[in-house]
Amino acid sequence: MTLYTNKELYGGPCSNGAIILERGGPTNFGRTEVVAWPVTNGPTPNANIVGHLRGTCVQVDNTTNRVWHFSLGLVFESTRFNGSTLQVSGTSGINGEWSIVGGTGQFNMAKGTIKRTSIMDRGTSRISELRIHAHYTPV
């Protein structure tokens, strides 16, 4: 399935990503953020929210490559997967791949990958495409 983190916002009154630790310096090594990105069925502003991707991101590379470790839960809402989750973990750049390390509900014992690709990046706002490939045991 293909979904989108529609409007990853890192500033302003509607922010859904917050820096909780920032060391500064040229690389920001160790910078830690908490996110609650809406996940939609399309990249447009009027796309339907199908869930939220919530968790933490830590910058784990002390170079200018901006490599992050992600620990996230994708919680589905108002779809046939309502209440089901995918647990996601991985180390990558903004464009990269995460591991699906588990799931609940309809995604019981899920394993797989999510390929994340930034399709719009404007300062403190980003939209990413999420290509989800999961194997799970239906309940």
TrEMBL record:
Quote the subcellular location field of this record. Answer: Secreted, Extracellular space, Apoplast
Return the Pfam families for the record: Dirigent
Q: Which domain of life is it from?
A: Eukaryota
Presence of keyword Oxidoreductase: no
Major localisation: secreted
State the GO CC annotations: apoplast
Gene3D superfamilies associated with the record: Allene oxide cyclase-like
Alphabetical list of InterPro entries matching this protein: Allene_oxi_cyc_Dirigent, Dirigent
Keywords attached to this entry: Apoplast, Secreted
A single GO BP term for this record reads: phenylpropanoid biosynthetic process
The answer to whether keyword Hydrolase applies is: no
Please give the subunit comment from the record.
Answer: Homodimer.
Q: Which PANTHER family match?
A: NUCLEOPORIN-RELATED
Function in brief: Dirigent proteins impart stereoselectivity on the phenoxy radical-coupling reaction, yielding optically active lignans from two molecules of coniferyl alcohol in the biosynthesis of lignans, flavonolignans, and alkaloids and thus plays a central role in plant secondary metabolism.
Concerning its family, UniProt says:
Belongs to the plant dirigent protein family.
Protein name from the UniProt record:
Dirigent protein
**Organism (species):** Digitaria exilis
